[in-house]
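Narrative of accomplishments. A recurring question from our advisory board has been how the design workflow behaves on a single, concrete structure rather than in aggregate. To address it, we present the structure tokens for one chain from the evaluation set, followed by the sequence designed for it. No filtering or post-editing was applied between the two.
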């Protein structure tokens, strides 16, 4: 925690030296609050040097600090910043570290602060929390952008929004199931897993393309049931080999020593498996459903057209 002098403030009677007795009293109060927290393992500050009393003037504080060994490590050279070290209990999970950081912030907010002084929480815990927040935002943003681009391309290639959506549908299921499994298995969002959404969309889109394209090719010569049977038999078996080899390659990453690389391999392998399952098993149901809806709509249009004549 950095206790800093505010450079720009309209407050009157502001503190000009971070060793001011009012600042020392504020730090002593914060030190006591932090020591009372069960999730804080260790607190270090200049507070122990002033356990008896805080001098009434700046010169008294200076003399006290001059006689205290190691006190200089809590200050910068121009005495505009003072540091307070609060260490959460080692081994805390991400959620508990975040909770400990929020707890420290509450203690800081409750502490009496003199005019012209501000408290800033720094260190690895808040840095990691901020990094994870940015990564989650980037993951959502990149996944949405990739999904929009892929859907537009599919709609243009298929020359139909409905057919483009049918091709895109396995990706929706694949991404949803993958993130759900990550939460169930406790796989965290990290630097490595933040990009899986875009990667799964890029690699898994081919299964839907093959399935839908083959179905409509066969539909020109066969009934709906026969076309679906041919598409699933031929395309399903061939794409299974592609999905299996890709999955095996990603699963090989689980042999890495770094947990982040292991998580990357696990999530990408799951994503490919889920995309194939969605394309080979779930997608045919929606193909039939879309065709029946289209037939009903066309029948209603024809009835209205005949009735108007």
């Amino acid at each position: 925690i950095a206790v800093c002098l505010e450079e720009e403030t309209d407050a009157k009677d502001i503190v000009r030296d971070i060793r001011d007795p009012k600042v020392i009293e504020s730090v002593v109060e914060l030190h006591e609050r932090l020591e009372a927290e069960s999730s804080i393992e260790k607190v270090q500050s200049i507070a122990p040097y002033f356990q008896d009393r805080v001098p009434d003037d700046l010169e008294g504080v200076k003399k006290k600090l001059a006689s205290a060994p190691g006190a200089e490590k809590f200050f910068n050279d121009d005495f505009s910043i003072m540091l307070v070290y609060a260490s959460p209990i080692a081994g805390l999970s991400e959620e508990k570290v975040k909770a400990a950081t929020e707890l420290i912030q509450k203690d800081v907010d409750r502490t009496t602060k003199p005019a012209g002084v501000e408290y800033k929480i720094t260190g690895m815990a808040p840095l990691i929390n901020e990094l994870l927040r940015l990564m989650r935002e980037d993951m959502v943003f990149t996944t949405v952008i990739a999904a929009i681009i892929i859907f537009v391309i599919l709609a243009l290639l298929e020359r139909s929004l409905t057919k483009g959506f049918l091709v895109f549908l396995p990706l929706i299921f694949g991404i949803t199931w993958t993130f759900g499994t990550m939460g169930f298995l406790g796989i965290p969002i990290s630097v490595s897993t933040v990009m899986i959404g875009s990667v799964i969309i890029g690699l898994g889109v081919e299964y839907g393309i093959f399935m839908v394209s083959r179905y409509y090719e066969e539909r020109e010569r066969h009934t709906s049931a026969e076309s679906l049977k041919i598409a699933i038999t031929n395309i399903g078996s061939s794409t299974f080999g592609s999905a299996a080899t890709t999955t095996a390659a990603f699963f090989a990453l689980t042999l890495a020593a770094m947990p982040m690389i292991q998580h990357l391999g696990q999530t990408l392998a799951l994503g490919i498996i889920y995309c194939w399952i969605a394309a080979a098993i779930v997608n045919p149901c929606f193909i039939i459903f879309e065709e029946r809806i289209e037939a009903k709509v066309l029948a209603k249009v024809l009835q209205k057209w005949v009735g108007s004549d």
